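Note on ligand handling. Small-molecule inputs were canonicalized before submission; formal charges were left as drawn, and no protonation-state enumeration was performed. Where a ligand contained multiple stereocentres, the stereochemistry in the source SMILES was retained. For nicotinamide-adenine-dinucleotide, this procedure yielded the string shown in the input block below.
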Amino acid sequence: MRALVTGGCGFIGSHLADRLVAEGITVRILDSLQPRVHPRGLPAWVNPRAEVVLGSVTHPPTVRQALEGVDVVFHQAAYQDYTLDFSQYSAVNVTGVALLYETILRDHVPVQKVILASSQAVYGEGQYDCPEHGFTLPQPRSRTQLQRGDWEVQCPVCSRPLEPRLLDEAYPNPFNQYAVSKYAGERLALGLGWLHGIPTVALRYSITQGPRQSLFNHYSGVCRIFVSRLRKGLQPILYEDGRQTRDFVHVSDVVEANWTVLVQEAADFQAFNVGSGVAVSINDYAQRLCQAMQMDFRPIRRGEYRVGDNRHSVSSIEKLQRLGWKPKGTLDDIFADFLNWVDSLGGIPEEAFAAEAAMREAGVVQQAAHS
Ligand SMILES: NC(=O)c1ccc[n+]([C@@H]2O[C@H](COP(=O)([O-])OP(=O)(O)OC[C@H]3O[C@@H](n4cnc5c(N)ncnc54)[C@H](O)[C@@H]3O)[C@@H](O)[C@H]2O)c1
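Structure output:
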């Protein structure tokens, strides 16, 4: 079998490429080495047994070259960050998907399956219940509400705080440039796959963690940001009040999810959540990380918030579990594996701090008037 892994030089794609090579699959990677993710060029972790095609998923001749002789595509490449160049998100995350199917069909590439990385972001502000008005898919919290330092999501009818539900695959509700582009890419892939008989699966990853996360872009999140501060003796800054919840999944479980849907026909033409299903508040996350690093926990809460962040995002993983997949990596595994990797690099590079500063400069981080 021959596999194409787009974005295969990145965090998840490189782990996936390693697994496919280990399974005896011939792997080709297509990656543009996006400069904010890879400011130092080709990373050393790229599997030496994989062929690497450098170029963009939006460039027709490159995509044609990358698809030649391929049986299965793992589409991991994406434009992702907290940046204001909104048009880039759809240019890569939607057009890239369209070009993939266009090329498969035009060139008669006998692709047997496409597995596409989607995101928990497609759920937007999430899924909630009001004790009086029932189930709702709320709008993101308004700027006025956030400026008041009023963090919980409110019922659109009675304004009372809502109870979050585990995110169910049936109710996407994306808002921001990244989420909308990932959902559009996913719909396009599942739709074109269905219409043209190309088995397609979309995997909506929760926050994925482990070694090889980009240390440089704004997007790749909480573990890198907290670890970089703690390693300098600085306490973590918690946005909002720190009680917002997420679920975190180890990259090895994400790789296993890709493998599960590759080998099971029952997965075809569907979207699945890939997460841990376990709610962890950012406060608890930071506290457990401090424990793992044997540091005091005295977090900084200034009532800051990030524009476009959602309050509670924890995925239900029942649907994929029914195919036999089960997440194994714990939060402690995530911390241990990330910290060991950072040590192997000789620490987190200074440039990592620039991402936080750039996010503030772009106005993504705001200060509530009262909190
Ligand atoms: N990491 C997470 O927490 C997470 C969560 C949800 C969804 N996802 C999705 O998983 C996938 C992989 O994410 P990741 O965390 O490994 O990110 P990453 O940034 O580490 O990897 C993405 C790779 O895609 C490449 N790339 C970007 N634009 C490209 C283009 N136009 N053409 C070719 N290659 C391009 C980058 O150079 C990079 O190597 C993405 O589709 C992302 O949207 C990730």
